[in-house]
Amino acid sequence: MGSVHGAWGFIRDPLSILSVISSAPPSLLFSALLAIAVGGFISLYLFLNLLAHHPRPPHNSEKTYLSIDSDGNPTPPAPLPDAFNPSSTPILDISVIVPAYNESARLPGMLAEAITFLASHYPNSWELLIVDDGSSDSTISTALEWAGKRLSLGELQPDRIRAIPLVKNRGKGGAVTHGMRHIRGRYAVFADADGATKFSDLKTLMEKIQEIEVDGHGIAIGSRAHMVNTDAVVQRSFIRNFLMHSFHTLLRTVGVRDIGDTQCGFKLFSRAAAEAVFSDLRTEGWIFDIEILLLARYKGIPVVEVPVSWHEVEGTKMNLVKDSVRMAWDLGMVRVSYAVGVYTIGEGGPGRGRRKSCEGGVVVGEKQNHEAQDGDNQDEVRNREQLNGRAK
Q1: pLDDT tens across 61-76, in order?
Q2: DSSP 3-state percent helix, strand, coil across the chain (nearest 5)
Q3: Where are the transmembrane segments (predicted)?
């Protein structure tokens, strides 16, 4: 007992501890500190591995899609293409991904606007992928019935709209990622099912992305930052605006300083950029937009922010307080997970020489980057000329 009390007294006496430390050999102190540091890092790494999000593998049924045939009837499930397969090549100009969770009421209006624009600007060279994120309503059947009616009116062709049902809800980021993995277009844009963003603004995004592409890599993101003092934002509730400004402050602390609006659900990717980003994307919740921008920066992919027209639409699936807290937590997890190596960064992005020129910030805003065109090969130039011709 005496030895126990003596040890406890020693531990409680800071001077005794300091005396032992000061008398210890420097090599022993260094070894002890190194062991503590290594042990702390390993503990943090294991802790983050337990908490960090790791997307589940897709079910076999999620690798198929539904559409309508030439008679307007639903087709049996057919296999989806693997866009990230090295042998895969684009056969369309543009793919549109629409993540949808219980959107049977709002989806038809968005589809009507999108298809009117696509048929006019990219005739016979577009597709629209509706990724049903485990809905409990009639999202899929509503979309296919709507497509069948449009086909009967001669306004739509078979297989232009593809519906991909997910067995279990992944979250918006997971639905978008799943859609991006199965595109057939040279470019791919994801757009919210509520139709809050004016779809014809895709024309401006396409023009801007082609100005800043580097080695076929580029991202153009829609932005509502210019609307911060308009009625659409000012008339929002105090709590919603407070959370919005708090979130932007948090973004600056983790390194996303050059983007005015990270959360707008209207983002356009070149095919190469989509593969480089979404092959590494882990986050499947609301914060996935931030991880997209972080990956773009890590991989040297240029990003341009483009003002778009936007209006508030009722029926949001977001719980302001709960989801804001979750987003803050996920944001911290993503940033730390990349910092300590829980999340690794794979291949993809512009060539090494170009990547160095982008170091320190790949966001170019609305500035024109004429150097982006220097490395274009002749095939890319021809593709751009064809796209521009169709978009006029």
Answers
A1: 999 999 999 999 999 9
A2: 50, 15, 40
A3: 28-48
Contacts of 137 (CB under 8 A, 6+ apart): 102, 103, 104
pLDDT score of 240 more than 80: no
Domains within the chain, CATH numbers bracketed: 60-391 (3.90.550.10)
pLDDT in tens, 186-233: 999 999 999 989 999 999 999 999 999 999 999 999 998 765 555 554
| Tally of CB atoms within 10 A around 316 | 13
CB 104 within 8 A of CB 142: yes
Exposed / middle / buried, residue 257 (Cβ in 10 Å: 0-12, 13-18, 19+): exposed
pLDDT at residue 379 tops 70 = no
- In the numeric block, which tokens belong to residue 152? 């009967």
Extract the runs of DSSP E, i.e. beta strands, from 247-361: 266-270, 303-307
pTM: predicted TM-score of the whole model, two decimal places:
0.79
Q: Which residues contact 55 (CB under 8 A, 6 or more apart)?
A: 170, 174, 177, 282, 284
CB neighbours of residue 240 within 10 Å: 15
Strands 303-307 and 126-132 come out as unpaired
Task: Give Rg (Cα) of the chain.
Answer: 25
Q: What pLDDT, on a 0 to 100 scale, did the predictor assign at position 61? A: 96
Pairing verdict, β 126-132 and 161-165: parallel
- What value, to the nearest 5°, has the Cα angle with vertex 389 and ends 278 and 161? 50
Q: What residue has token string 């809905």?
A: 135
Q: What is the pLDDT of residue 32?
A: 75
